[in-house]
Write a structure and sequence with these properties.
By secondary structure, the protein is an alpha+beta fold. The chain is built from 32 helices and 28 strands. Strands 10, 11, 12, 13, 16, 17, 18, 19, 20, 21 and 22 form an 11-stranded mixed β-sheet that branches. Strand 19 and strand 20 form a beta hairpin. Helix 5 packs parallel to helix 11 and helix 25 runs antiparallel to helix 26. It is elongated, with a radius of gyration of 35 Å.
């Protein structure tokens, strides 16, 4: 390895370092150029519906209707400003991958130790590593003393990894390369030095960053459906407008009049308010999700979350707390259960389910005393909670001792230490005590048992029998099979006059027992997984941890899985074999970033909408590739957050479930107001075309249609977007992302209601137009608005009548209806609006007639729902009528 990078044991010279910097480039990551404010703003105009509205504005201007054109353009620009402001605020510069690289590094150059900017490091540099520092490059270890490194951000491994010099076989898995320290990881114990073998984009970190940059963003299901709807409406509008003009010309009407009819029809077909209402609904949904600890970074992601059918979740820090804890202690004469959560030093010690005084039990007290004294970790209370300084495993032992009321505050100064390494698998610290020096030892239980001749039973050291040794080893295997990380303890009062070496001290030990340590599941994670099951969402655990630990956590959380697959298993399978295996195996361990991308690709084959949760650098490419990437807000790396669509502010897996519920509510409401708006537009279309075919004058002028579409319908549709979630929203399977937002049954309902509204409008108009055309148009204009306000109540639920969902359960809609009526009164009675919108005052009797004519629209919808309920034919798994 040294020869490959041209390393020198005394470090590089300054000249050689400069030459290599020129050859290899700086130790930084290349980053994707961030979108400018202008690019984000212009992206808001990519929707097909928006393009059609711009074309409609242009046509309106060309046929001499500048006010109509201005009204359409205003709504288009306001929609773009709203979408831009939401996305820019959500995506404020994180600069994730740059922040993850170390700012400074300690190297040896010209035979001297120097602190340099990490960007100036080059392959071949001799790098010094110390506890608490981030590793600045990929480094081949040449010297190590008790060196342990936290690789969780890179591999997902929850416990620090022992590092030591040595050679390993080619192809050794990333998580098992004990002779390497990787960029972006952290030294948690000991110190060492090594040769930099890769910098910048050539590091494992950089390779994963490159994967993230190559992953293409995909359109969300809602965006695809809205574009499809926009194309369909555009073609329909064009076809109807051309056909109407042709019919009018055959009736020998004026060409200018028919152009006006054509524009009116085009405006009537297109729901001008729909893009703005969708954007506003998603924006309001983002605010709601933020209150539920879900920070949405991209506007459509809130709705996409509601369509999720598979959640691929990391284990460490996502399903678990990422805080190691002692849960069991096995001493030679008893087994003790330890309660508590995380690093909070509060809990009980239970024997057979009953609390015991740990200090009153000699064996348990001595075990806790030894693991506390043979320990370098410290526990401190900071703002926001308790924090461990040192390795998480040692921290767990300190927390357990503190739960028992023990501390090192009065401990004497240690006289000697024999450090831990992966070969010895143990460490010892010697303290002076009354009656002589005592060695406190901790390490692998099987190693300590082999070096012990006695055990502590009933407070006295007695010979370790073969029978007891076998019993302890059996329990040890049982702990390991349950995924517990096991650490043993022993002690020895040292004879006077012996020479202190590791071999002379760590022999003839008194074995004290061993502790079972685990990164415990989050208390709310099990309930969240249960809710995912009820919602038809598949949960797959993907982790860099070992399969035994991963399987144990899965069992504890109630995540059913036929065994566990490792990264090696995945590589040995074809895509078809892996696709079949993923149907029953939900635990994947020892996986790499490439494995995660492959799993997402395979799951995408059957049109799954995939959410990927994670917090590490290793999660970043998969977070970007998934339909929706979900990063942890507290413990997530900047790289993960930058690649995600959503950030869990509280790192709580359960918040995902709340987000799914909110996403489903948003989609249901988008579905509701889309159908409501289209039924209104069909009513306008039927009224205009019907009047044309009957030889009547133009029943609605373009500016009146725009008023209906933008003001009246816009207000009520936006309020409809605030409709509360239905009771069974989390008891139905996810929707098919390929399914259109408008099903066949939805088209039938839209057409039926639209024709009804249109015929009512013609009925109102045809009896008055010969007497007073302005009053007739005002009656048709106001009548259509009143009919639509009745109709909006039909769309509050597709299954339940108003008395079941509560008439006042959506107060915003009631206010929107009253507001629309008030605005229409202004339009009818204020002179300036009479001129602008071509209206005339109406009598109270006119208003009463229109109210009576529209009432059956609501009553028929209510009757239909009641009949369906009584017949037991409501569709429990679909938010739309079949």
């Amino acid at each position: 390895m040294r020869r490959e990078v041209g390393a020198d044991p005394s470090g590089l010279t300054t000249g050689e370092a400069e030459a290599r910097l020129e050859r290899y480039g700086p130790n930084v990551l290349s980053t994707e150029a961030r979108e400018t404010r202008l690019q984000v703003f212009l992206r808001q105009f990519k929707s097909v519906l928006i393009v059609i509205l711009i074309i409609a504005a242009a046509v309106s201007f060309l046929v001499g209707e500048p006010l109509d054109a201005a009204a359409i353009l205003i709504i288009v620009v306001l929609n773009a400003i709203l979408g831009y402001s939401q996305e820019w605020q959500a995506g404020e510069a994180i600069e994730a991958l740059r922040k993850m690289l170390i700012q400074h590094a300690v190297v040896v150059r010209d035979g001297e130790r120097r602190e340099i900017d990490a960007a100036a490091m080059v392959p071949g540099d001799l790098v010094l590593l110390a506890m608490g520092e981030r590793v600045p490059a990929d480094i081949y270890i040449v010297e190590a003393t008790s060196l342990q490194i936290d690789e969780a951000p890179l591999t997902g491994e929850s416990a620090p990894v022992d590092k030591a010099p040595g050679t390993l076989p080619a192809g050794t898995a990333l998580a098992e390369r004990s002779n390497m320290a990787f960029a972006g990881t952290t030294v948690t114990n000991g110190h060492g030095q090594g040769i930099a073998v890769a910098t910048g984009m050539q590091t494992e970190f950089g390779r994963i960053a490159g994967l993230s940059q190559r992953v293409e963003d995909e359109a969300t299901p809602l965006a695809r459906q809205m574009d499809r709807l926009g194309r369909d409406l555009g073609l329909i509008a064009l076809g109807i407008a051309v056909l109407a003009v042709a019919v009018g010309l055959l009736q020998q009407r004026e060409l200018l009049e028919m152009f006006l009819v054509g524009v009116s029809l085009a405006v009537a077909v297109i729901p001008e308010g729909l893009p703005a209402v969708v954007t506003l609904t998603l924006a309001i949904g983002i605010k709601t999700m933020m209150r539920r600890n879900c920070l949405i970074r991209h506007l459509p992601a809130s709705e996409t979350l509601g369509a999720v059918s598979v959640i691929c979740t990391d284990k460490t820090g996502t399903l678990t707390r990422n805080e190691m804890a002692v849960v069991r202690v096995r001493t030679p004469d008893t087994e003790v259960t330890v309660t508590g959560a995380g690093y909070l030093p509060v809990g009980e010690f239970l024997v057979d389910g009953k609390p015991v005084d740990p200090l009153g039990n000699p064996g348990l007290r001595q075990f806790l005393q030894t693991v506390l004294l043979c320990n370098h970790a410290t526990l401190a209370h900071e703002e926001g909670g308790w924090r461990v300084f040192g390795t998480p495993t040692e921290g767990a032992l300190v927390v357990a001792a503190k739960k028992a009321g023990l501390s090192r505050d009065d401990a004497p100064e240690a006289k000697k230490e024999f450090s831990f390494n992966s070969t010895r698998k143990r460490m010892s610290i010697i303290y002076p005590e009354e009656g002589g020096d005592v060695a406190h030892v901790k390490g692998a239980p099987e190693v300590l048992l082999a070096r012990s001749s006695r055990v502590l039973l009933g407070g006295s050291a007695v010979p370790l029998t073969d029978e007891l040794r076998e019993a302890l080893l059996t329990d040890l295997e049982e702990y390991a099979s349950r995924g517990l990380r096991v650490l043993g303890a022993a002690c020895r009062r040292l004879p006077a006059g012996i020479e202190w070496t590791a071999d002379t001290v760590e022999t003839d030990l008194v074995f004290l027992g061993f502790a079972g340590i685990v990164d415990p599941p989050r208390p709310e994670a099990a309930e969240a997984i249960r809710l995912c099951k009820s919602a038809g969402i598949d949960v797959i655990m993907i982790t860099g941890d070992n399969p035994l630990t991963a399987s144990a956590i899965a069992r504890e959380l109630g995540l059913s899985s036929e065994g566990a697959m490792t990264g090696a298993d995945l590589e040995a399978m074809t895509d078809n074999e892996l696709e079949e295996r993923l149907k029953t195996t939900k635990v994947l361990s020892r996986v790499t970033a490439e494995h995660k991308l492959r799993v997402i690709d395979i799951l995408s084959r059957n049109r799954s909408v995939i959410a990927m949760t994670g917090d590490g650098v290793n999660d970043a490419p998969a977070l970007k590739k998934a339909s929706i990437g979900i990063a942890m807000g507290i413990k997530g790396t900047d790289a993960a957050k930058e690649s995600s669509d959503m950030v869990l502010v509280d790192d709580n897996f359960a918040s995902i479930v709340a987000g799914v519920e909110e996403g489903r509510r948003e989609y249901d409401n988008i579905s509701r107001f889309t159908r409501y708006l289209l039924s209104s537009n069909i009513g306008e279309l039927v009224a205009i075309v019907g009047a044309l075919l009957l030889g009547l004058p133009l029943i609605l002028i373009p500016v009146q249609i725009l008023w209906i579409n933008l003001v009246t319908d816009g207000l009520t549709a936006l309020a409809l977007g605030l409709e509360p979630a239905e009771r069974d929203v989390m008891q139905r399977r996810p929707r098919d992302p390929q399914e259109s937002i408008l099903t066949r049954s939805a088209y039938a309902v839209i057409l039926l209601l639209g024709v009804w509204l249109g015929l009512l409008t013609i009925y109102v108009f045809q009896g008055l137009y010969e007497v007073d055309l302005d009053r007739a148009r005002t009656m048709a204009f106001t009548g259509l608005i009143i009919f639509e306000l009745y109709n909006v109540l039909n769309f509050r639920s597709f299954r339940y009548p108003l008395h079941r969902i509560g008439f006042f359960s959506n107060p915003a809609l009631i206010l929107a209806i009253l507001g629309s009526l008030a605005l229409q009164a202004l339009v009818v009675y204020v002179p300036v609006f009479n001129v602008f919108l071509g209206t005339a005052p109406l009598t109270l009797a006119d208003w009463g007639l229109l109210a009576l004519l529209g009432l059956p629209v609501l009553l028929a919808g209510e009757a239909y729902k009641i009949v369906r309920l009584r017949a037991g034919k409501e569709h429990e798994t679909s938010p739309v009528p079949a």
